[in-house]
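## Example pair
The file below holds two records. Each record gives the amino-acid sequence first, followed by its C-alpha cell line.
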Amino acid sequence: MSPVNSDPSNQASSGGGMPLTRKELRARERFLATQNQDIVEVPDFVPEEVTVPAPVAAAAVLPAPISAARRFSAPEAPEAPAAAPQAASVPAAVPETVPEPVQHVDVRQGDAGRQGDAAVAELHGDAEPRHDVHGYADVHLDGHADVHYDDHAYLEHHEHDEHGYDEHGYVEHDEHAAHEYDSHHGYEAYEGHGHEVLDSPAAAKAPSKKVRHRRRVVALLITLGVFVAAISIGAQFLRPILGMDRLSDYPGPGTGSVTVTVPAGSGPKAIAGELEEKHVVANADTFLKAFIAAGGELSPGDFQFRTEMTNADAVAVLQNQDASKVIYFALSAGLRINESLEAISKGSGIPVQQLKALSDAPAQFGAPAKAKNLEGFLAPGEYRFPLGTAGKDIMQKLVSTTLDELKAQGITDPAKQFDTVIIASIVQAEGGQADYGNVAGAIYNRLKPGNSETNGLIQSDAAVTYGLGTKSFNFTEEQRLDKANPYNTYAIAGLPVGPIGSPGKSAIDAAAKPTANEYLYWVTINLDTKETKFSKTLAEHNVYVAQYNAWCAANAGRCV
C-alpha cells in the first residue's frame, strides 16, 4: 500500500486526509514533469516504514509525491515554461518500504475527487473523466489495510504500461474501458468493515449446499426412474422371445379326447412337442422333465389324452398307469392274425369270435380286394381307446395306420398295396431290421422275369411254415415240395397268396423302396443277433447255411 499523504491543502478542500496509492503518485508526478509544473514538496508527515513482502516489487526510483490539493483542484491554463524549477529535484531513490497502516482508510468518491478528476479530464480535452477498468482493487498488507475503489477507480494492471503517453504526458485510456461518472454511484460498505459491496453479476450468490444437494437427489431419482422404466419396457418385449410368458402346466383335469400316436423308435422329446402342439400339455419342456423324473419308458402305439391335462396325468397315460380307465393292448411286429386278435380281445374285452368276424370282411375297412382277411393290415404298436369303444372302431384304427404308411411311401394302388404288404411281411420274418432293405432287394431280384438262378422262386422258410400253421424252422422235404400249401414259396413261383404276418413301419418302407443290389440268397446265421449273410450264387449261399447249422448245433433247442 502506498504512503498516505497528509497535505494540508487537501484537507482544506475535503475536510480530511485523503490516501493516495503508489499508482496515483506515479501518474501525477509524470504528468507534472511533462508539463513543467512545480513539484510540491513531500509533506513533513512520514509514517513508520515497514518492509514490503518478497512478492511485492516496488519501483527502484520514484518521483516525489505531489500534494493532494494539486490533484483535485481545477488547474489553470498552462503557462509557457520559463526555466527548470529549482524545487523540482527528485530524490535519488525511494526505499522499497511502505508505511505500516495505522487505520483502515477508505477512498470514497466525493466532491474533491470529482474536481480532481475533472481537472485531469480538462487537460486531456475531454468533457468528462474516463477510466481504464471496472471493479475494485484491493491491496492487503498484514491483513489490515484495504483500499477500495468504486466501479470507476483505477486498477493496477500491466496493460497500463503498454498504453504509453501522448504529447501531454497523459496515460492513454481504452475507450472501451472508459465510463462516465454517475451521480448515483456511491459506496456501500460492509457493516463494521468498510468493504464495498460489488454491484456486478460476478457477485451473485452461488446456490447453497442444501440446494445443490437437493438438485443432485432429484437428478438421481430421475435417472433411476428412466432406468427402471427401460427395464420394464424391455422385459415386456423379451418375455415372448425367451418364453417367459408360457404356462408351465395346466391345472387339469382336461376335457375332450385327443389321440396321439407314438411311432416305434420315437423319442420323448418329439412326443412332448406334439402334445404341446395339440394342447394336451401347456409346456413341452416341463412335461419332458416330468416324464424323465418319473423314470418311465416310451412305448409305441396310440394314446388317448384330454386337452389341457396336467403334466403328471399325461405322463401316467404314456406309462400306461391308467390302464384300468382305458382299453389298452400292444401288438408286436410279425404277429399273425390270430395272435393279434387274441391280444385285442384281451385288452378290450371283446370276444375273439366277434373280432375274427370283423377281420374276415376286410373290404369294410378299406383293405385291397385280394385280401381274404386283415392279415398284414393290423399295424403293430400300443393302443389305448376309451372304455366301451366298439370292435369295429378298434379294427378300423389299426388298418388305417397301415394304409396311411403305404400312401406315405407313394403306394396308392390297392393291388400294389397288397403285394407290398406281402413282401413286407416276409422281410419282417426273414431278416434283422438292419438288413430289411437288402432282403427286400433280393426278393425283387428273384421275382424278375428270366431269372434262371431261382426261376422266380422266393424260397422263404417263414412263408412255408406260415402255410403249415407252425412256427418251426424245420420241415420235411416232402413239405418243401408240397404245392398244396399256397404259401410254399419253394414249390410255387411268385408271391404267396397273402401276407404271413403284420409288418412294422420299417419293413413296409423297405418293401416300398428296396435297396438296389444283385443278391439272390440270404440266410440268418445267428437267431439272437439276427446277423444275415447275402450271396449271389448257390455255392456261396451253402457256405453260409453251414454256418447257420453250426450255430444251431452250438445252441441246442433254438433251431426247432
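Second record, same layout:
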Amino acid sequence: MPPLVLGLCVAALVFRITLGVDLSDESYYAAFVDGWLKRGVGDSPFLMIHQTADLLVYPLALLYREVRGDADGLVLFLRSVYLAISVLSATCLYRAIVPCWGRTEGTLVAAFALLFVPFGLPAPSYNTLGMCSLVGALSLFAVGMGRSPSERSPAGGWLAPSLWLSAVWWAIACTAYPPLLVPLTALVLLTLAALRAPAERLLVTRYATACASLLSVALIALCWVLGPARLLEMVRFTNAFNNVSGGLSGKLGLALDAFAAHRNFALMCLAAVALAAARCLNTPRFQLLGDMALGLLVLGVAASDAPTFFSRAHDLVVLLSLTGVFAAARILLSPAADKRPCVIAIVYGASFVGGFTTAAMAFNGLFNFPIGGFLASCLALVLPRSATAYSRVSRRVVMAIACATMATATFSHYYGQIGGFTYRDSVRVPGGAFAGLRTDPDQASFIAQMTEAIERQRGCGNKLAVLGTGPGFYLMTGMSPSALSTWNYPGDEQNYATNAVKSFYGIPANQPDVLVVNNWQWATPLSAADRALLDNYMPVQNVVVGLRKASVYRRRDCTSQR
C-alpha cells in the first residue's frame, strides 16, 4: 500500500512539474543559475542573498549543460531537481512517523508532504530548498533521537548516521534560507529542556556540535566562492531591498488586514486553536469528535471563496499547524517511558518556531509561514496518538481529506499563468530555457516573439537588463544579465538598494547593451533612476500578445543588428 500511494503522488508531481510557465518568481530563481552558466559566478554582479540557495543546485546545472551540450530545458531540469529533493525529504518524514504511528499514517503524512508545492512553484528556490531541508533535518532528528541509547550512538561512532544526515540537511537548509538557524537553535533548547537524562543531553550536545561544524564548513565554502566582503554586501543589499529589519510592524499589519478581509478564515483559525485545546483531553469520544471537527475545518479551507495567505495550500498549512499546539505541549510536560512521542513534539515545536521565523523575515509575512512551519502541520495530523481503533480510522479519514485538499490546491494553482490554465488548452514551449514546459498559447507566443526581438539586437553587445520587473526575459536570450538583482527594484531615493543600483549603472562598463521594459499591468512602475537610464536607449520593438506587453531598447550609439 505505501509504495502504491507514494508512487502515485510522485507520478502526479512528475506530471505537475511540466505545467505552467512563470516569468516572475520562478524565473528570478532560475536567472541566477542561468546567469552563472553565461558568465560564471566570479564575474556575476548579483547581490541578492537568495542566490546562496541556487549555488547548491548550480553544479547540477553545469553537469546538465555538459551532458546536453546547451542549457535548453533548464527550467524543467531545475523542477526535476526540486522533485528529487521533495521525495527525499518526504522519505525522511515517513521514516520519522512510522515508528510511532505505523505505516498507514506514515504514508498519508508523506503523501501530504509530497503534494504541497510552496507558492505553486515546483522549483528549487530559497523557499523550497529551505522548507524541504528543514523537513528532512527535523525528521531525521526524530528518527535518531527516538531510538534506543545504543542505536543513537553505535559502538565506535560519535553519532548515529541519521543524526549526521540531519546535520547535513541543516547545513543545506541554512545555506538556502539563513534565518532557519532560529528553529535549529529552538530544537536544541527544547530538547535540552525536555530530555534531561545525562546521556541524552550528551547526545544533543554532540548533535549541536555536528550541526555547528557543518554550518561552519558551509559558511567557509560561501566565503570561498563569493568572498566575505561580497557576502556581507549581499546581506546589506537584500535587507534594504526587502526591508527585512524595519518591516516587522508592516508584516503584522499585513497579517491583520488579511484576517480582517477573510473573516471566515480568521474564525476557522480561532476554532483550530479551540480544537487544539480540546484534543488534549485525548479520550476516545473527544478524539472522534475532534477528528470530525478537524475534517470540517479542512473542508472549510477547500470550500473558501478565496485564499487568505496566497493559496488554499498555504491556508491549510497555517490552519493545521495551529491544531497541534496544545497536544505537543501536553506531551512535553508529561514524561513517559517511550521518548518517541516526546521527540516528535519537540520537532513540532521547532517547526512552529520556524514558521513564525520565516514569516517575520520574509517580505510577504505570513504568506511564508509554511516554509518553516510546514512540518508542524504534518505532525498536527497525527498528534495526539489515537486511543482506539475507531479513532485511528477517523484520523486516517481526516488525513486522506487533507491530502485530497492539498492535491486539489496544487493542481488548480499555476503561479505565473494569467487567467484560467488547463492542460487541454496548453501548448509546449519548443526551445530555450523554458523548453518542455506547457503554457497557454499567448504566453508561448509572447516568449517566442520576445526571444526573437532580443536576439535581433545581439550585434549591440552581450549585456542585458530588465526594467519593470520581469526576470523571465533574462532566460529568453543568450545575453548576460547586467544587474545587481534580476528583480528590478523601484525603491525611493533614500533606500540603500536604490542608490546601489544607481551607482552600479553609473559605471559605463556596467551599462547594458540592450534594455527590456516590462509594460504589462502587473509590472513595477519605473523609478526616476530607471527613467534616467532609459533615456540613453532608443526603442526598437514593442511586443504585445494578449495582456502581456514589453518593449525592447538598444543603446543609441548602436546601429547593428544580428
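Notes on the second record: The radius of gyration is 24 Å. The longest helix spans residues 198-226.
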